TrEMBL record, chains A, B:
Annotated TM spans: none
Entry keyword annotation includes DNA repair: no
Source taxonomy: Bacteria, Bacillati, Actinomycetota, Actinomycetes, Kitasatosporales
Domain HTH merR-type: 1-70
Organism: Streptomyces lateritius
Keyword DNA-binding appears in the UniProt entry: yes
Name this polypeptide is given: MerR family transcriptional regulator
SMART domains hit by this protein: HTH_MERR
InterPro entries (UniProt xref): DNA-bd_dom_put_sf, MerR-type_HTH_dom, MerR_fam
Length: 210, 210
C-alpha cells in the first residue's frame, strides 16, 4: 500500500509517518520508484505499536526506539532480552545522595531476599523502587514500607499472569514483543484498575460516615 | 529560616523555590522585611512533597498544583476528595473514535459490574483503562483481557492495603495528603515491584532452557 493508505489505516498523519521512519521507529517502505514506497501489514502493526508505546505507555521517541531495538535483537537468550527490555522501560530517577536512599536500598535488598526473587538489587527496577521509597520517607510517609508486602504479593500475582500470557507465544519475536507491550501497557492497565479499586474501597470506608 | 537554609535543607535551588512560589505550589514565606521572607517546617515538607510528585510521580507543574488544591479543599466530604484527587492524577489519554474503544468500554463496564466495584464507568480511571485495552487490541494483544481478572484481584489487594494505611491518619488533611501521595508514589512503587517480579518469573520460566 502507499503511504496515504497506511496513514488512513492507522490514523497517523503522513508527515508523522515520515518522521518515525527518519527516527528509526518504522522501517522504510519498499521503493517502487525514486519517490514512492510501498508499505505492508508489518508497517501497520509496527505503527500501532509505536503509537501505543508513545500515547498510552508515555514513552519518549528515544525510549520507543530502544524498546524496538530490544525486540529486534535476536542474538540474546530470551530471558536476557526480557530483562533488558524491562530495565529499559523503567524510568531512571536521579538518585539523591542523601541518607534516605541508603536505608531505602537496604529495605529493597531485604524485600528481594525475603521473597526469594532472582532479581539483582542493583537493577534499574530495584533502584527505582529505592528512590520511590526514599521519596515517601522524605514526605513523612516512611510507614508506607509496612504495606510493601501486600504490594509485593500483588506484584507477584500480576507478574505470574503476565508470564502465563506471554508463554503462549511460540514465535520468539512475538514473545519478546508481547513482554514489552505487556510491561508498558500493563502498567497503564494496572494503574487504572488500582484507581477504580481505590474509589470503591474509599467509598465503602468513608462514604457513609462523613 | 531564610530561603537559603530552606534550599540547603531540601536540595532545591533558590530560583526553583521562587518559581514554585510564583506557580502556587508553595505558599510564600512570612515577610520579615520588604525583600526578605521567613520559611518554616511546613515549607520543608511541602517542598519535599512537590519534588516527590514531580520527580518520582512524573506529574507536571500544573498537575502538582491541582493535586495540592485538592488536598487543601476542606469543604468536601473525604471520600469525594479522594475520588477527585485520584481522578486528577490519572493521565488523560486522547480517545480515538475507532470501533476498538467501544468494545473496550463495554469490557470495562462488565469488569466493574463483575467485581461489584462502586466505580463509575464514565470516570477518568475507567476511560484510561478502556484506552489502554483498545491500544492492546490495536497492536494484536486483544487476548490480554483474559488476564484482566488476575490484574483486578491484585489491584483490589493493593487498594485495600492503601486504604488500611490511609485510615490510620486521624487529621483530615494528613489523610487526604496520604491518599494523593500513595496514589502517585504507589504507582511508582508498584511498577518497580512488578518489574522485579517479572525478572524473577522470567528467569524461572526461560532461564534454564534457552
Amino acid at each position: 500500500m502507499r503511504i496515504g493508505e497506511l496513514s488512513r489505516r492507522t490514523g497517523v498523519s503522513v508527515p508523522t509517518i515520515k518522521y518515525y521512519v527518519r527516527e528509526g521507529l518504522l522501517p522504510p517502505g519498499q521503493l517502487t520508484s525514486p519517490n514512492q514506497a510501498a508499505y505492508d501489514e508489518t508497517h501497520v502493526r509496527r505503527l500501532r505499536l509505536v503509537r501505543a508505546l508513545l500515547d498510552v505507555g508515555g514513552l519518549s521517541v528515544a525510549g520507543v526506539r530502544e524498546v524496538i531495538l530490544a525486540i529486534a535483537d535476536t542474538e540474546r537468550p530470551v530471558h536476557k532480552v526480557l530483562g533488558v527490555a524491562a530495565d529499559r522501560v523503567v524510568p531512571r530517577y536521579p538518585e539523591e545522595p542523601g541518607e534516605g536512599i541508603v536505608a531505602a536500598r537496604e529495605a529493597v535488598a531485604a524485600l528481594i531476599a525475603k521473597h526469594g526473587w532472582r532479581s539483582h538489587p542493583e537493577s534499574p527496577a530495584a533502584q527505582a523502587l529505592a528512590v520511590a521509597l526514599a521519596a515517601l520517607e522524605g514526605v513523612g510517609h516512611g510507614a508506607f514500607v509496612e504495606v510493601l508486602d501486600a504490594y509485593a504479593q500483588a506484584a507477584e500475582r500480576v507478574a505470574r499472569a503476565d508470564l502465563d500470557y506471554v508463554a503462549r507465544n511460540v514465535v520468539r519475536e512475538e514473545l519478546v514483543e508481547s513482554v514489552v507491550v505487556g510491561t508498558v501497557l500493563g502498567d497503564a492497565v494496572f494503574g487504572a484498575l488500582r484507581r477504580l479499586a481505590h474509589v470503591d474501597a474509599s467509598d465503602r470506608l468513608f462514604g457513609d460516615n462523613t
